[in-house]
Amino acid sequence: MITKASTPKGMRDFSPSVMFRRNYIFSVVKSAFEKYGFSPIQTPAMENSETLTGKYGDEGDRLIFKVLNSGDFLSKANCDSSSTSKELKKQISDKALRYDLTVPFARYVVQNRNDITFPFKRYQMQNVWRADRPQKGRFREFFQCDADIIGTKSLISEIELVQLSDEVFTSLNIPNIEICINNRKVLNGMVEIMGCPELFNNIVIILDKLDRIGIDKVKEEMSSEGVSEDGILVLERFLNSSDVSELSDLLKQSEIGKKGVEELQFVSENISKLGLKTAQLKFDITLARGIDYYTGCILEVKQNDVKIGSVAGGGRYDNLTSVFGLDDVSGVGISFGIDRIYMVMEELNCFPENIDQNTRVMFANFGEKESVFCLGLLKQLRENGISSELYPTSVKMKKQMNYADKKGVEFVVMIGEDEMNSEKITVKDMKLGNQEQISISEFITKLQ
Amino acid sequence: MITKASTPKGMRDFSPSVMFRRNYIFSVVKSAFEKYGFSPIQTPAMENSETLTGKYGDEGDRLIFKVLNSGDFLSKANCDSSSTSKELKKQISDKALRYDLTVPFARYVVQNRNDITFPFKRYQMQNVWRADRPQKGRFREFFQCDADIIGTKSLISEIELVQLSDEVFTSLNIPNIEICINNRKVLNGMVEIMGCPELFNNIVIILDKLDRIGIDKVKEEMSSEGVSEDGILVLERFLNSSDVSELSDLLKQSEIGKKGVEELQFVSENISKLGLKTAQLKFDITLARGIDYYTGCILEVKQNDVKIGSVAGGGRYDNLTSVFGLDDVSGVGISFGIDRIYMVMEELNCFPENIDQNTRVMFANFGEKESVFCLGLLKQLRENGISSELYPTSVKMKKQMNYADKKGVEFVVMIGEDEMNSEKITVKDMKLGNQEQISISEFITKLQ
Lengths: 448, 448
Description:
Two copies of one chain form a homodimer.
Chain A lengths: L15 H20 L3 E2 L5 E3 H4 L4 H7 L2 E2 L17 H8 L2 E3 L4 H10 L8 E10 L11 E10 L5 H16 L5 E7 H10 L6 H8 L2 H16 L3 H12 L3 H7 L4 H20 L5 E4 L13 E7 L6 E8 L13 E7 H11 L12 E3 L4 H16 L4 E3 L6 H10 L4 E4 L2 H5 L2 E6 L5 E5 H8 L1
Parallel strand pairs in A: 1-5, 7-8, 12-13, 12-14
Antiparallel strand pairs in A: 2-4, 3-4, 5-6, 6-11, 7-9, 9-10, 10-11, 14-15, 15-16
Helix pairs in contact in A: 1-6, 6-12, 7-12, 8-9, 11-12
């Protein structure tokens, strides 16, 4: 019986040309992380269900992929025609696939706390899985690259993450990067001054939509949520404040607000003193991502030419590990979205030329005797670190050249009777189209 | 409620010191693959169940991890108290986790056959999952690194895989590597000459155990399987044949056997002409791994000092993609076992020194003013590609030095009032224990 060759919904194969590009992004991000002193860890694809359940809200719980217990899973379950999926799920599945890197990291930290020297700077680059409805740019398996510094409240860490973002996007050659920064405490202060701290969550959710729905609609929605007219006037003043010192003035009546402004000031003043390579740092009071999670600084990185949402984001959290029984671990982290970064780089043509050119030299195959002769030369090339190969059979030259062409080979070496009897090889330059006779050592020098 | 921090049975966290070592192995293997002209692909962690089911035998089917359908999975299932696990499984799970890289690769090739230029040299480095009983050295999640050349029957490919194995283990600095080679056709011929071709499978299974059970037990088992006394005498002659030419003589009555010897000869003669860097190539007639799968050459790589089984293995197959509806795709491949390679390298001390030393320089933190000053110097170091960091808070020096020590930092830079007012920084060499005052530019030169 023949099986149909297909991939599950929302999951992707990556072909060589895509893989070369993805690997390029991975290696740039990895180098930047390591240059900043972050160390790699990895956690397993599967976690015990209780590690993940309840950590991402009801919506998240629904989207976690569950792994069926192996063996005769039903024997230990109570299942009859009245069973519901929810009841049965717990009985037949005790493991689930990683949904993000943060919760497994928190679990890792608690489990390994005796071996970790804090502050702990770790990075983690792994796939995560979500049973989301697949759509353009949203997949059920995707890659996350996270860097976190935990075990310190120092704002030096926030400065590092801003610099790290600048480093990553500069190295990737992506222009017009904007690093937006806000602070949860500033938002707390603002809502206090607006006179409705009890509406905090509703207010930030509406505020977060400002870009899409405009100021009038924002005011309308706030009003219907119960924000007073005075409160909305205060909000407008905050939205119009153009820099951190104005903000400071607006927040002078709020203790928590003043703290937030101080933090923002420390980060932004130091960054402006140090300078960024190519990115712009910008304060944005409407930035409220992960608001039920972050407790201090909030970061979001955008590319201004491609409308695709954020390419990285993060912030400071105070209770990463409490849920696993370890209190008072403050941290700050950032997550880079590899799929979006890929799309931006494709659209803006940021990938280096010849990125999917792997084999530099191909030896054409003119028959057994010639190909055996080529093996010796091939070995010399490889010993000199030159990526090269021999076409395995002596099929028509057209087919061999087509292969070389598709693979983006730079040079095709042709060895026939003549070349075997002389000290010269015939080399065809695939870009220029010309041929020359040179010695193998001259050729190697040329390639280095 | 507090969740207990633990990993599922048979699954592992990898801490920084392990990850640095694993990443080192990955990067060496990847470089070797690419130098030989292999291109990377990746397939999703999940496949449709029908892609995997029935491809690994009954035992394999049992060990495949199944993913529960998302949402209200029971609504479409027929489940009552008489349901069996097997019946229900099909109804509530239509996806499964990758069990190896070969079947997903075959599926990939068929699905993308119009975009692939054959022969196709691909490598793939990804995790696989098996619901095996965990034991020492056997995990439920482990990494495979496969390289295959498909779409050609040329024996040049076999030569390449032998060279590639030599390249990988030489680059990893692992001594005493033995590459064992056999050929399915030689085994077919031998069993033909033994006079019992119908017992082929039983014979090779017994033969494969020779190492463990010894020759007398092998003869005994063969005899009880129905091999004649003459047959056993023939077998002994084969086992005593010390090289390929003797084999040739023994097989002169078998067409398929002669073909097998020719193939072996072509590979081994060319390899001995070309020479290997450090590995030994050895013919081993008892080598019978994957015998229901391989059709020609069989390869197995062992390290002779560590008793751990094979560190790589592979062979030629003729019908990789038939099951997905594409006939006549011959290929040859090899798979490197990263976990075993890791264990061998640990035991033989093959990892480079300082492999888990990531941060080369740490700036000690003496307070806010000093640390802000350090940020500027830190930036200069990083701009020169030097991995470095600033301790984020001004805690006791002992704690900071302990952190530097644990992280394997080479130099700690100390900047106090004096250093801020002079052009010199104080640098402590963590290995030698001494301190010196130098300028930042002298320090950068020293580090390059």
